[in-house]
Amino acid sequence: MSNWIATDEIRGNFAKAMSEMYRHEVPQYGSLLALVEAVNRETLDADPTLAAELRDSDELARLDVERHGAIRVGTPDELAMLRRLFAVMGMHPVGYYDLSEAGVPVHSTAFRPVDDAALKRNPFRVFTSLLRLELIEDAALRQRAAEILAARDIFTPGARELIATAERQGGLDAEQAERFVAEALETFRWHREATVDLGTYRALSDEHRLIADVVCFRGPHINHLTPRTLDIDAVQQRMPEAGIDPKAIIEGPPRRACPILLRQTSFKALEEPIRFADAAEGHHTARFGEIEQRGVALTRKGRERYDRLLTASRKGGPAADNVSHQAQLSEVFADFPDDPATLRRDGLAFFHYRAVSGATADSGVGGEPDVEALIAEGALVATPMTYEDFLPVSAAGIFQSNLGDGVHDEYASHSNQAQFEEALGAAVIDEIALYQQRQEVSLAQALSLLR
Ligand code: OOG
Ligand code: NI
């Protein structure tokens, strides 16, 4: 056996180091964490059943730990190297998101743990976007941006060396893992100094604020971190009294008895002082804080229904405020089943199956197993499988609320997963196939115990 440090442990240490760095860099993020902690505590006090459930599933201790962060990079090489860096921490590219339709010139994936044990240990993921320079219409500006990007290296020599070592050895020992976390962290650090003069920054920013954010700095600063909240509606409502300016609406599905997919909200990005290469002083807004609340993962059929209802709810144009937005959503989503049994029987959501210890099966074992009968007789238990990914419409809303006014029209481009995967140097994992597989494995294991 090797003495390599588990990838789950490296990921946990990295997420912790990133959280500390970000709290130091963006003090308002610390205020958000304090608010989330207070709301989580009050929710648990008011709901002993929920508290017991979380305690039984070992969730309590790491409730306030971040669930995701996000970065944006400029070149295929940067993306491909990030894939190798994240792999050292057991994080792999899952899903493809095209944001160009929403006026954001990027496409993205999420680097995240994929198997049950790793997700349980620490689900930290990084939403990673690649700038699509080809969408910049002005040829001279496109060329200039490409040159600036070609001149930078967002990885330290130490990080490059340790990634190669991990690949060669098949892991890192304790000393190497500790150095790796410190070196990898450098890529995500904020730089107060831009690499370009103010004029270049302005030209890129006028094309799209996001282009300036990606191109003008030494690295892809982490632009937000996102802890988990047990009551996103309460945090949204209480942000102003904590001195935090929230985005207008909570993204995603409405509040449900049986939560589905992902609900998110953030505070607006802060204006931060920048020194430009020509010694000019200016400002840049990029960094913010976000919170998330996750529900059950939907099957393809469930997801299609979600997308259809979400589109229907947007027909009337944007709501005046979050309260009316949520009311509008709830009305439309009345058509979506809201109890676990129906979601499961209608094939709308994914579940984990577990054999009840000591149970024996009276129904159907030997022949074709009758899952419904086994559940009804108490031999088999199905629990909702948490959604681990992102939602493109929600992501676009998060991007836009943090890019300020001057929202760009839709880009005349199509989603291009093949181009993204070529840049990445690998195929992205299909998230639906992954949930399906985890469900099948859990069911097969449970049934084999009942035989
Ligand atoms: C990423 C925005 C998307 C989310 O939670 O949907 C995102 C970004 O602003 O770079 O993080
Ligand atoms: Ni996010």
From TrEMBL:
EC number from the UniProt entry: 1.13.11.93
Tagged with keyword Phosphoprotein: no
Keyword terms: Dioxygenase, Iron, Oxidoreductase
Single GO term (MF): dioxygenase activity
InterPro entries tied to this protein: HGLS, YdcJ_bac-like
Enzyme class: oxidoreductase
Keyword Oxidoreductase: yes
Cofactor: Fe(2+)
UniProt record similarity statement: Belongs to the 2-oxoadipate dioxygenase/decarboxylase family.
Protein name: 2-oxoadipate dioxygenase/decarboxylase
Species of the source: Franzmannia pantelleriensis
